[in-house]
Amino acid sequence: MQFKDLKAQYQALKPQIDSAIQSVLDSSDFILGKQVEKLEIALADYVGCKYCITCANGTDALILSLMAMGIGEGDAVFTSDFTYFASAGAASLLGATVIFVDIDERTFNISFKSLENAINRVIEEGKLFPKVIISVDLFGLPACYSQIISIAKKYNLKILEDGAQGFGGRIGNKKACSFGDISTTSFFPAKPLGCYGDGGAIFTDNDVIAERLYSLRVQGCSKENKYEQYEIGINSRLDTLQAAILLEKFKAFDNYELQSVNEVAKWYTKKLRNTVITPYIPSGYYSSWAQYTIMFKDTETRNRIQNILKKKGIPCVIYYPFPLHQQNPYKETHVSDKDYQNTLKVTKTVLSLPIHPYLKEDEVDEITKLIIENM
Ligand SMILES: *Cc1c(COP(=O)(O)O)cnc(C)c1O
What we know:
Layout: H1 6-27, H2 34-47, E1 51-55, H3 58-68, E2 75-80, H4 86-93, E3 97-101, H5 112-125, E4 129-136, H6 145-155, E5 158-162, E6 170-171, E7 174-175, E8 182-186, E9 200-204, H7 207-216, H8 240-272, E10 285-286, E11 292-295, H9 299-311, H10 341-349, E12 350-353, H11 361-373
Parallel strand pairs: 2-3, 2-4, 4-5, 5-8
Antiparallel strand pairs: 1-9, 6-7, 6-10, 8-9, 11-12
Helix pairs in contact: 1-8, 2-8, 3-4, 3-7, 5-6, 8-11
The structure holds pyridoxal-5'-phosphate.
Pyridoxal-5'-phosphate binds near residues 86, 136, 164 and 200.
């Protein structure tokens, strides 16, 4: 069994994908070819944003966004303590100070109460300028944007939505990657919409930010002349080959994959809800199920079940085993574990099960039976 069955997906889409790849090879227009622009138009339209600016990966998407916001030394950037490292690393790389915020243990997303407390602490200390909230749509579920947006307004902060795992999710009819002043996603192969290598995208409605991002991804050159420098940027573009692949994969994603993966999640929840803590989807929210993550009553049970599943050839992963504030680059920040009780608890008890649109109900049965029988 596969954790994400990329081979099954390729088999289902092989003719379209092969011909999309062939057409790029025939055109030999490998950098910023016409498929890149076509993809940017399609994704901006889907998400409901004025601009989509693609780039080399989801981490660069965050870095470029923070560069376009002018974030650097002396700035405080707030993000979840329970996320993939890039959400924090991007801000640190630019010299900003990352302030970690505890999560809501039901949604695994940032806790708005802890967020407001953290902002007030930084204001009281008076050493840093609070600038940006990097909200993360973890495991496919959008963060609690109504509260995050009102906190951002109250304290005059910008929102950078890290939608690397969130693409396809929504709250009501509003889609993930449209909640931030700037929002980002990743096309890493295992993400909800993945390509066949690295890729990423940035979404915004802001004309000035968009213009700056088009420049920053090509070294910061001027719009008129590639060899005339406007500011210092990086080289971060999506390959035409990846854009061509994504155009085909996006069709399948929108036509049936997102629906299928939601079916799979329903099977899991129905079978497991009396045995473990299954994912909580607040009313009106829709997840794109980057992960299906369950919680056990303690670490011993979690580790024991993980071993049993592994022995039966069922891959399952601990996303994530460590709170970010405890990771090596942040150890010196001397924050106290007591402010991260929910993150600490979930890192010790969560387990992510195989989930993808091509997972069959009898495979879900096999997995859930093993869990139930061994509890
Ligand atoms: C995957 C991921 C990223 C980084 O994306 P890459 O394309 O791997 O650089 C950033 N944030 C989160 C939450 C992610 O899951």
